[in-house]
Amino acid sequence: MSSKCAKIGVKSWRVIYMDNELCSHCQTYTRPGLPGGGKVEEITARKMCKNAVDRSQGQLVDIAMVGFCDDELLEYVADRSPKLSRLEIAHSKYSAGSLIKALKKLPKLEELSIHSAADGLQVDQALGSYCPGLKTLRLNHCDDIGDEEIIAITQNLRELRHLEMHSNLKLSNTGVQAVLDGCPCLKVLDLRLCVSVDLNGDIGKRLEQIECVLHTEPINIDPYSGGAWFIDLKTHRKVLGGNIMASMSDSD
């Protein structure tokens, strides 16, 4: 890929894409909840994102939409990106129905990141049915994800290596047990601020098979806010040095 990187920044939003014969990566951000945002910014970001998708001519493999994704844009991306392997959506207003429609069209998806879903993320079995090759799944700050949803989601994700569910307050040991039963290849499990999960006893013994289990108290676990992530890098089993996210990425 060409080393030329186009960076476009206006006030509180930015679009970054790698410029090659065809675009294959697109990362588009607005800053949720900060001054300078608004409808005009969101509309501009959507236009820029669509332009990158169109330029890719079906070769897009990686897209991040933070702060502006809606139903129409999500389906627009899915309809034109059959090779997409990574999808990240955060702080956006879209329906579970549109996400399910998109997943049906993305059979090559290996990494899905959902942060702060606007409504109930009731995708359940759709993830396993339409994305059986998923290796990384992030469902962070998704308040409607509990044991029942996790049981359904993990039934068919046999290839999953990396699972993040921090700040999912409805998750309990029952859901964690389902993860361990359904995901034999799992290497990283993030349970930070899952306050109903108790890692003592039998569940703790089962977690010994996982290389990295995170269950610590962060200061700020919103990666899109620009603040520090957390003060304690200890995991349930060991201490990770350096950048925690780099360590977790290396485990994928």
Distance between the termini: 22 Å
How many β strands by DSSP?
10
Rg for CA atoms: 18 Å
The profile of the biggest β sheet is:
10 strands, mixed
Spatial arrangement of strands, main beta sheet: 1-2-3-4-5-6-7-8-9-10
CATH H level: which superfamily? Ribonuclease Inhibitor
Average pLDDT taken over every residue: 75
Order of helices and strands: EEEHEHEHEHEHEHEHEH
Which range best describes the helical content: under 10%, 10-25%, 25-40%, 40-55%, 55-70% or over 70%? Answer: 25-40%
Judged by helices, strands and strand pairing, the structural class is alpha/beta
Overall form: elongated
- Strand share of the residues? 15-25%
CATH first level: Alpha Beta
- In the CATH hierarchy, what is the architecture at level 2? Alpha-Beta Horseshoe
Tally of discrete structural domains: 1
